[in-house]
Amino acid sequence: MQLKNHEYILIQLNLYIVLSTLEINIIFYIYLFSVTFTYFWVISSKVQSDLSLLQWNHPLQACHTQDILPSMLSSYPRLFLYNWGTKLHLGKYVSGVIV
Fold first, then answer.
1. What is the pLDDT of residues 15-32, one digit of tens each?
2. Mind telling me which residue stretches traverse the membrane in this protein (predicted)?
3. Which of 50, 52, 66, 97 is the most buried (most CB within 10 A)?
C-alpha cells in the first residue's frame, strides 16, 4: 500500500498538531506550577513575618493576641500555620497544622 501525496501532508499535519498541543500543555503546566509556588511562597513568608511579630514564647503569653489572631487567620483561608502548643481564642491547643 502506497500513500499519496495528500495523505503524507495529512500525517504531517496531524503530527504537528499533536506535538504543538503537547508543547502547549507542558508550557501551561510549568506556568501553573510556577504561579502556584510563587503564591504560596509569598503568602507563607507573610504569615511567618506576622507570626514573628507576635513573638509567642509561651502559650500563656498568647492571651494578649486574642484579637489579632482570629483576624490574621481569617485573612489566610486554608493555609498551613505552624504554631506548636499555642493557645488560640477557641481555647484549643494547636500542635501542628491549622487548615
1. 888 878 888 888 888 888
2. 15-42
3. 50
Distance CA 46, CA 12 (A): 51
Residues whose CB is less than 8 angstroms from the CB of residue 81 and which lie 6 or more positions away in sequence, other chains included: 47, 51, 73, 94, 97, 98
Residues 6+ apart with CB under 8 A from 3: 11
The phi-psi region of residue 85 (left if phi > 0; otherwise alpha if psi is between -120 and 50; otherwise beta) is left
User: Which residues, 6 or more positions from 85, have their beta carbon under 8 angstroms from its beta carbon?
Assistant: 59, 93, 94, 95
Question: In 1-99, where does DSSP find H-type helix?
Answer: 5-54, 68-74
Q: How far is CA 4 from CA 1, 16, 89, in A?
A: 10, 19, 77
pLDDT at 1: 56
Joined together, the cell numbers standing for residue 62 give: 498568647
Of residues 39 and 60, more confidently modeled: 39
